Amino acid sequence: MQPTIVIPTYNEAENITKLIPLLFELPIESLKVLIVDDGSPDGTGDIVNEFSIHYPNRIAVFQRGGKLGFGSAYIQGFQRALAEGAECIVQMDADFSHPPNKVVELLNTLESHDVVIGSRYIPDGQLDDNWPLWRKALSAFGNYYAREILRLSIKDVTGGFRAWRRETLASMPLGRVRSNGYSFQIEMIHIAHRLGFRFHEIPIYFAERNLGESKMSFQIQLEAALRVWQIRMAYQDLKPLPQFDQ
Ligand SMILES: Nc1nc2c(ncn2[C@@H]2O[C@H](COP(=O)(O)OP(=O)(O)O)[C@@H](O)[C@H]2O)c(=O)[nH]1
Ligand SMILES: [Mg+2]
Predict the structure, then answer these.
(1) Domain boundaries defined on the chain
(2) Beta strands in 71-191 (DSSP E)
(3) Which one of the ligands is nearest to 159 CA?
(4) N or C, where is the chain less crowded by C-beta within 10 Å?
(5) Residues 76-124: pLDDT tens digits?
(6) What distances in angstroms separate CA 220 from CA 69, 180, 217, one per listed residue?
(7) Domain 3-236 belongs to what topology?
(8) Distance in Å, CA 246 to ligand 1 centroid
(9) pTM score > 0.90 for this model?
């Protein structure tokens, strides 16, 4: 199984410098890393290029012209990884909110499931201790709201730390995904759910970033809430794939 980790970046120079060596220290055979960078003014892309000298053929940067959004960065990154033959694909943020050592468990669990989700909302999963209550409540509510409207049984539908089998992503209509903010995660899970794929969640501790700045705003959260209704309407034509039809 050749795994590729896809990481979208915008001004993550400090984080990426620490994250890349950590990922390659993990006990994962033939691991590759694909960074999708949107021309970060802080030189994130150049830093990744320097790392490719130390880890030849194992790390690449996919440079896009400008800040085109994090959803489309993931979609293009997934398509590139599939085209290059990745057998499983991990998605994670660059800012250490997703614990790098948990990638091993995500990939091991993927052997018996179609999609594995790093989850904050199952026993032993947790949001950053230092988050104020209102922020925890907002996150929990957003998650509950999307789950109810889309009738999803997965507990964490907004988190962005996931592992996908090649076959799962390859059978999803990635070209139809329009979300660019938080709703991107919801849209992907909804599509996979409608196609009948099997999920598993493993607990993670979601830490707030220490370095760099968040690119998400309150407006993006609001957009996500409205977008959930569009997502519900948009994929009514999708039915479970033949292999899941009982
Ligand atoms: N390529 C790309 N990456 C982005 C963009 N917006 C955010 N990201 C990356 O997506 C990940 C999550 O964003 P972040 O700002 O940490 O969101 P938050 O955790 O919700 O505050 C980080 O690795 C960001 O660098 C974008 O427009 N383009
Ligand atoms: Mg973050």
Answers:
(1) 3-236
(2) 88-91, 115-119, 126-127, 162-165
(3) 1
(4) C
(5) 999 999 999 999 999 999 999 999 999 999 999 999 999 999 999 999 9
(6) 11, 9, 5
(7) Spore Coat Polysaccharide Biosynthesis Protein SpsA; Chain A (3.90.550)
(8) 39
(9) yes
